[in-house]
């Protein structure tokens, strides 16, 4: 296997490497260990002491899809990760719970497949939130509407998605009818990497099995009472396709809190941004100002009022998150200063 087969051509070509070290890609992160695919096979790796000392938050650690520099150990398929190469795309969310910290779900991805099932669990608001973070990731979002054979009003749901996800490609799939799989595989040409994201029961593992042509990922039936799924995938893993290209499978995420999504908000609500440019006042709040082009568009039937409400909700959520991030940054800087001061004191001894 060559590095090109793993998508290395998308990495900055100026990256240098220490003699005797290897470039590789993280295919399966564990708590303290990482499986890394290299030109010379898979290495089980750990982080160097220096790496662990300098890492101060979640985003500093390797994640699935990352390119890393590995120092191989003699005569065995093990080694140490020296550094993580700069990421050129990443899908991030705020970690679950009250803590204000970023969790990078997958890195160095060309396309984010947002998987939503066409059964009772179909939720346009949840899909809208996924799309915000997908645009922010730097990858291209594609919406996959799965389980089409379970839906009686496919066209209506497609129209709902099209109104929300302006200009985003939509692929409808049905494993019963072998529908849509070729369209997904087409996205993996030129050794591109796709990440599948969606809630439990959306059918991500089944789609991956169909793309691989064999049952690799375990699947489970959904609950009959609400069509929601059980957690089948419990870890994130990069899988090589026999036709070339890679797929990243991820556990279902019911809690999807925003992280940084300024650009994602702008792209997801591009229609509102177009109207905003024609408002009489640059700081228009779209509530009662004279000459508000957004309110005029709503009155003229060119924009749904509910869409504006969603836009405002995300703005408030991001503003609140930014205030929490600023406070956490101050606390982090204080902790780092204490850590380094302690290190210097012990070093002098």
UniProtKB/TrEMBL annotation:
Q: Which UniProt keywords apply?
A: Cytoplasm, GTP-binding, Hydrolase, Metal-binding, Nucleotide-binding, Ribosome biogenesis, RNA-binding, rRNA-binding, Zinc
Q: What class of enzyme is it?
A: hydrolase
**Residue ranges of every copy of the CP-type G domain listed in the record:** 98-256
InterPro entries membership: G_CP_dom, NA-bd_OB-fold, P-loop_NTPase, Ribosome_biogen_GTPase_RsgA, RsgA_GTPase_dom
Enzyme Commission numbers on file = 3.6.1.-
Answer whether the UniProt record assigns the keyword Cytoplasm to this protein.
yes
Family matches, as HAMAP family: GTPase_RsgA
Q: Kindly provide the name given to this protein in its UniProt entry.
A: Small ribosomal subunit biogenesis GTPase RsgA
Source taxonomy: Bacteria, Bacillati, Bacillota, Bacilli, Bacillales
